[in-house]
């Protein structure tokens, strides 16, 4: 059916195509692996002998399978961590797998894992630590930057299309006692030139920003808009976690966390693998708060993701599916006010499908509105999922969710931002109808999806 009214104008800033694709992945895996798996350290100092790197049972496909089975869409590999040991045979240094006994020094773990990811239907991304505690030129800023760019070029040209390039902000002094100054503009320009589809991550973006903690927790509000020019890498940035209302650029938050206390494998942490309940809390606080979750699994000395972690990831997926398999709003009758041009193309029923392009839309001048779903029968509900069509920008500043129980309306919850996805939990109720009231918005409010779920008893 053709729309009778003009579509809503975008509310700037809006995501680029690569940012939109990134946001829709929702779950991204992280793999931390280097000599640390053999020394027990979290930060190697660069003096490790490559001879210690000998994972005799290494199976990159097993890593990729664990993430695919967990419902992940992409995985980022620490191709080089702070210790400087490269998981690929870099032409820039001997401090790599080429000097290790693994596969007789002829192995390339970046190749193996990128191929394994693709075989499992996963996109692939790279982490290349700017901080390098092995490289002699570190601290001699121009020389090191040129060398780092040469390494980066290898990763950008040898391993197919990349979905994300992750720049850690950690920085130190080189052997000359001088602090290294990273040339991020040059690093970013090289990625744009060679991998235009890759999102650039750092504390300060430019495409994706750090969420501000390593617990995997975003917050409310979580604006994907940011006054990016006020941000620095490694700085204490005001708005790191929350973003900025009316920010100048689109720079959504990525929430990173490890399934274990450490980023690297330590056998003594085998009994501290996060529980399904903890992982679900992380999910609600990241994906459920307009963020993407970046979850780390650290392979062990054998070169395998530990059985406990593999099983936990599968259980985490099963738990999500048990909650989100059935949309309890299915079959509801939908109404809203105001509706753009009284046109069904923008009517309330558009929130019931899973199409992110269709939405309930209000007239240009509206800054508030309500949408109601009346269920075909009373259903036990304990959470509501809301989505804005973010291709047109992030708009909602404040909203309330009400439920009708036994004929009486009551407030179930309230929030500030929605963005790509917001999941609001409340005490389980026998719900007859639900109403979302948008109280404040940066432009005419739009919702692409409203869904209802219940935690299984
Ligand atoms: C930090 C690093 O220092 C940690 O080792 C880990 O890589 C984490 C994801 O980022 O800055």
Which labels suit this protein?
eight-stranded parallel beta barrel, 2 domains, Jelly Rolls, alpha/beta, 457 residues, six-stranded antiparallel β-sheet, TIM Barrel, binds beta-L-fucopyranose
Report what the structure shows:
The protein is α/β, with parallel strands linked by helices and 457 residues long. It folds into two domains: 17-324, TIM Barrel, CATH 3.20.20.80; 333-453, Jelly Rolls, CATH 2.60.120.260. It contains eight helices and 18 strands. It has helices spanning 17-25, 36-39, 60-69, 109-119, 141-158, 184-194, 276-285, 307-324, and strands spanning 27-31, 74-80, 123-128, 164-166, 199-202, 208-210, 225-226, 249-250, 253-258, 292-297, 333-337, 360-361, 369-387, 396-405, 408-415, 422-441, 446-447, 449-453. The strands form four sheets. It has an eight-stranded parallel β-barrel with strand order 1-2-3-4-5-6-9-10. Strands 11, 13, 14, 15, 16 and 18 form a six-stranded antiparallel beta sheet that branches. A hairpin with a 2-residue loop joins strand 14 and strand 15 (408-415). Helix 3 packs parallel to helix 4 (109-119), helix 5 (141-158) runs parallel beside helix 6 (184-194) and helix 7 crosses helix 8 (307-324). The chain is globular, with a radius of gyration of 24 Å. Bound molecules: beta-L-fucopyranose. Beta-L-fucopyranose (FUL) binds at residues 42, 168, 170, 256, 263.
